[in-house]
Known about the structure:
Structural class: alpha/beta
Radius of gyration: 18 Å
Order of helices and strands: HEHEHEHEHEHHEEHHEHEEEEHH
Largest sheet: 8 strands, mixed
Mean pLDDT: 97
Strand content: 15-25%
CATH topology of the largest domain: Inosine-uridine Nucleoside N-ribohydrolase, Chain A
CATH architecture of the largest domain: Alpha-Beta Complex
Number of helices: 12
Strand order of the largest sheet: 3-2-1-4-5-6-12-9
Amino acid sequence: MLTQEQLLRRLEPPRGPVDVVLDTDTFNEIDDQYALAYLVRSPEKLRLQAVYAAPFWNEKSSGPRDGMEKSYEEILRVLALLGEEKRTQDVFRGSTEYLPDEKTPVDSPAARDLVRRAMARPADGEPLYVAAIGAITNVASALLLEPAIADRIVLVWLGGHAHDWPDTREFNMYQDVAAARVIFGCGVPVVQLPCMGVVSTFATTGPELEYWLRGKNALCDYLVDVTQAEAKRCGMGPCWSRVLWDVTTVAWLLGGFMKDRLTPAPIPQYDDHYSFDPTRPFIRYVYHINRDRLMEDLFQKLARTQREEE
């Protein structure tokens, strides 16, 4: 268990290049694809070690298992568009169901790989950063399989809403409340990026995507196409906008785009609300995003050609 001094040190934004794994429900929406590409295109600060397919269940899947499998395939598709097929050996299938309770892990290749990578690091060395942008089942399962990894990782999670929002009915949280309670209660260092009330400001539009990304490379054309298709599928009008939620987890690791503060870890309840206890361990809580500056950095990196990367 980390001391409070160690916890606070781990919650500081990383200064140099760091090792990162990405946990993503990539087929659920359109923003995961942007986040994965943004991470791969930021090698100066972020060294991507592995990608984990997370479960999801909505109108795009028949259940958590199907959502995870579709996400796995979408990860491979995005990596191919990036010209990064060599990374496919480090893509792992995740949980096929949500946690049955707060003590029982859902075993999976993703959870096992996270345990393996974390335990290979010394507890007093540089942590492994876990950027999580879906239901937190895989990460919670890894923590239940091997609690000692809490001293070796830092979790950056897009999950829940702002602490003053009237509810916590947010997709990544309400799919697996048990998993959310595990990660906020086990002592692992957590950076929370709340959706409504904070990350909801990070939105783009069709004309903006057409101007900055269309025609730049195959990846950019794919991202514009899937974003426009999703807007149409959701029945949005001609002046639609879409929040690129998941990009912000990668952006926090890069630094310079957000304001945050320390606050006691919230307690997600099963009735879609938070409880609060001032004696709980601290987390780092993001409360503001510089939308324009981050969007500019995102578009510039996505628009690079593979030759420019090399």
